[in-house]
Amino acid sequence: MVIPDHQISLVATQRFGRRFLVNFDLSASSDYIGAVFNPATFGSRAYRFRGIAKADLGASYTLPLSESRSLRFFGYVDNLFDREYFESGFRTPGRSGRAGASISF
Predict the structure, then answer these.
(1) Quick count: other Cβ atoms within 10 Å of Cβ 52?
(2) Residue 46 has what pLDDT?
(3) Sign of torsion, CA 93 53 86 14?
(4) Total Cβ atoms within 10 A of residue 31
(5) What is the CB neighbour count within 10 angstroms for residue 29?
(6) Domain limits of the chain?
(7) Residues 104, 69: contact at Cβ < 8 Å?
(8) Residue 34: Cβ within 10 Å count
(9) What is the mean pLDDT of residues 11-20?
(10) How many CB atoms within 10 Å of residue 104?
(11) Secondary structure of residue 4 in the 3-state scheme
(12) What residues contact 44, with CB distance under 8 A and at least 6 apart?
């Protein structure tokens, strides 16, 4: 099991008016020891991984279409500062983003 000794998470959400929303998520942890598996020998070794320091940023805007319908546009950036880190021994992608729209009726 891979659990760091110390972890912290901070989430801040700010609404601007009734339509615009911004979300910031910061996660950090201390170094941790994880097992690295060797598929050739079926053995594993303990390895110390550097702790995580990762920030994500999201935003959305809701456009009312009628009294009961709305269109929401959203965007999200993972790993905002493009930090290299590992999860359970696997290197994670650098900065990435996604965007989309949803309709409510």
Answers:
(1) 19
(2) 87
(3) negative
(4) 12
(5) 19
(6) 7-104
(7) yes
(8) 20
(9) 97
(10) 11
(11) coil
(12) 35, 36, 37, 38
Q: Which residues contact 103 (CB under 8 A, 6 or more apart)?
A: 65, 69, 70, 71, 72
d(Cα 48, Cα 33) in Å, to the nearest integer? 4
Give the confidence band of 1 by pLDDT, cuts at 50, 70, 90.
low
User: CA-to-CA distance for 95 and 82, rounded, in angstroms?
Assistant: 5
Q: Which residue has 């900065």 as its token pair?
A: 95
The Cα angle at residue 23 between residues 22 and 25, in degrees rounded to 5: 155
Residue 32, number of CB atoms within 10 A of its CB: 20
Distance of CA 31 to the CA centre of its chain: 18
- Sorted by sequence, the CB contacts under 8 Å of residue 14 that are 6+ apart come out as 21, 22, 23
The string of pLDDT tens digits covering residues 49-79 is 888 999 999 999 999 999 999 999 999 999 9
Residue type at 17?
A: G
